[in-house]
Amino acid sequence: MNAVAPSAANGTASADPSAVARSGGPAGVSRPAPALRAAGHERSYPDFLDRAARIATGLSDTGVGAGDRIAVVMRNEPAHLEITAAAAQLGACAVPVNWHFKHDELRHVLTDSGSKVVFAHTDLLDAVSAALPDGVRIIEVPVPAGVAAACGFAAPPATGEHPLLDSWLAGYAPLARAAEERPPTVIYSSGTTGRPKGVLRDPVPQDRLEEGVPSFLEYFAVEPGGRTLIPAPLYHASPSQHAVLALAAGLDITLMPHFDAEEFLRLIERHRIEQVQVVPTMFVRLLRLPKYVREGYDLSSLTSVVHAAAPCPPHIKHAMIDWLGPVLREYYGGSETGAVTWCDSAEWLAHPGTVGRAEGTCGVAVLGPGGEVLPTGATGEIYLKPSDNWPQFTYLGDAAKRAAMEAPGLPGYVTIGDIGHLDADGYLYLSDRRNDMVISGGVNIYPAEIEGCLLSLEGVRDAAVFGIPHEEFGEVLAAHVQTEPGVLLRAEAVRSHVAERLAGYKVPRAVVFEELLPRDESGKLFKRRLRDPYWAGRDGAI
Predict the structure, then answer these.
(1) Does one domain contain both 443 and 405?
(2) Which of 28, 290, 384, 432 would you label with 149, given CA atoms 20 to 30 Å apart?
(3) With the C-alpha atoms ordered 520, 522, 527, 528, is the resulting torsion angle positive or negative?
(4) Please, are residues 510 and 498 in contact by the beta-carbon 8 Å criterion?
(5) Torsion of CA 204, 205, 209, 212, to 10 degrees
(6) Are residue 395 and residue 450 in the same domain, yes or no?
(7) What is the pLDDT of residues 459-501, one digit of tens each?
(8) 307 with 441, same domain?
């Protein structure tokens, strides 16, 4: 579900930081001037703004203008955001690309997006060049040494086969006049259930972006001039949107090129981070750290830990609140809708398992298979109404898919493919993705519940549950389990753990142990890579 920043800050999907670089903070508190950094590579706001404006001029000279798109195939670092800001100043769209993509995926995104220019880190140039459509220009971005080290490799020397970012932008004066309307970035889905789709939203007037900043600060519980940490890749909607809003608010921004649980804690302590946005998988990895490691860092600066993008197992969230206190905040929505529901720690503790309730002019409805609105407590497909100010969207090259998302009889409501229910107080609860739901013998089974159960088993680090073919029941459950290093589990122990806690029909028939489950850096699980072999030729039937 690619959740994004709050609907209260609607229309804030691309920023021109030129009106922004603020300092200061709470009354009486002196702070260093806000900056942007990643793995020891730091940029002041004045330098950031100057470089972004020069990149904008360079892009204009290359023929990029309003409505055009440029691709960014880079890890998290300040230059990634400079390029995004530069595109916005021209009224063009940046397309952050998942640099893990293989050739076919990469070529699909570069072709489907119609990008005129691609900015790529040096070590990714071979893959980009091989997938590049004709007529597209490449700008080479050398990988900062600290960024490369954080990702586990030595920074390669620049190839010099393409213009190098720093020398290229140095040849241009800053852009004289920026566009009045800024198109949001085009975010492509992770391709977890099929080919990635590009979400194209309408352009946003700059004044509306600036009007949304106070709401962003309120919802994310951070002060002006505050300090934020972004640990997830910028090619996903949530961190991309968060970074843009943080720039618009002039926050001090620390980017993680690669998530490492202990490094995450070290950065919070070192930079006195006040606000972070994470995904539940990061909670799991943090809680797997030995207690003495977790307690060895001073995290007292944290005032707001925001999470989204996937359901969080209740026992994991309870453990995080017990550890960090009532600083957790959660939202739910999608790249298409913005955040629609919100809840803080107190609300969640009063409604365990909820992802919040609709805020402002947003709305939530749960519909049955015939399009009927279901009563409180009934499980069905979730439809979301974005805030009145959220920009309209479509999918690049797939208007039919966009039209199919509309709720029958409920204008303005769309589905992003999740299943769940509402309680009597209007709080929403997720069951699973529609595409992940398993129908076994006519019974609907939601794998997310079983995955959460497996994560509570001592020695389990990660789990994926999905349906595999079965002659009698149509589908039965398979669980692929990743254990902690050195831990040996038997399949029967896994089944017994589930059987003691959930109904018998939720116990996996097949249990497979994996060294590593296929997740990307933001925790998105590529379940189809595990599931597809079972269904190919029906060879996996039990």
Answers:
(1) no
(2) 290
(3) negative
(4) no
(5) -90
(6) no
(7) 999 999 998 888 777 788 999 999 999 999 999 999 999 999 9
(8) no
